[in-house]
Design brief:
This protein is α+β, with helices and mostly antiparallel strands and about 240 residues long. The chain is about 20% helix and about 30% strand.
Length: about 240
């Protein structure tokens, strides 16, 4: 980063040099596919389509959150980015919320002035202290002045992160439909457009069904020390 200095009258301004690295974030894709009967989609209840759409978008968000925060996620080339917590400084929870938060802050190398806490509602409830951490609860809040964001995808890990140290790129969620495709009806498909393999498929046209496919292009990377984790926070 850059630096600044005080300058005397008539004196020269010191040159500040920052170090830049060339990085790229190729778009990676996360998505969900479901097949519904035409009778359901043509239902007279207008809420049906909204419920289905919201559930699919919610599933994508949950998958992204889990990959983003899971300390064990080391990524997969051209498929999934590693989590921001993978390889980050880590401390083990002791069960004392205030002491654990101080351990986490000590391990953190980012900017505390812009940092936030991310954890599950159960973790924050376990760390809550009516005297020292009264603002921390199942819906997040704040702890020692740090904003706290609750998400169940965090599991028993609480992450302290500086968003300014995370490079992030994302597109909009694209939802497409088809009633004339053939679908491999399994949650572990073997089909591959590069190396096709034989598989039993179902004709949507023949079965009066429609497939809905929702996808989002996204990628991220920690570009400087900006993350620390607290592992093994009690969940009850």
């Amino acid at each position: 980063g850059f630096s600044a200095a005080w300058i005397g009258e008539g004196k020269s301004v010191p040159v500040s040099s920052a170090v830049f690295n060339q990085e790229s974030l190729p778009p990676l894709k996360v998505g969900t596919l479901t097949v519904l009967t035409d009778e359901l989609l043509n239902s007279s209840d207008p809420a049906a389509e909204t419920v289905i759409r919201d559930d699919m978008v919610g599933a994508i968000a949950e998958a992204i959150n889990a990959s983003f925060l899971n300390p064990l996620n080391d990524g997969e080339t051209d498929v999934e980015p590693a989590s921001i917590t993978y390889g980050a400084p880590s401390v083990t929870a002791t069960g004392d919320g205030l002491a654990d938060l101080r351990l986490l802050i000590d391990a953190f190398e980012g900017d505390l002035e812009t940092a936030v806490l991310v954890g599950s509602g159960r973790s924050f409830a376990a760390m809550h202290d009516p005297v020292y951490l009264p603002g921390l609860g199942v819906r997040g809040g704040q702890a020692l002045g740090l904003p706290a964001i609750a998400t169940k995808a965090a599991g028993d890990t609480v992450t302290l992160l500086d968003p300014a140290g995370i490079a992030w790129g994302a597109g909009s969620t694209d939802i497409r439909t088809s009633s004339e495709a053939t679908i491999e009806m399994t949650d572990e498909p073997t089909q591959d457009s590069t190396v096709p393999t034989g598989a039993q498929q179902v004709s949507l046209f023949q079965t009066n069904a429609t497939a809905l496919l929702a996808t989002t292009a996204i990628n991220w990377k920690a570009v400087r020390p900006a993350v620390a984790t607290l592992e093994g926070v009690p969940q009850s």
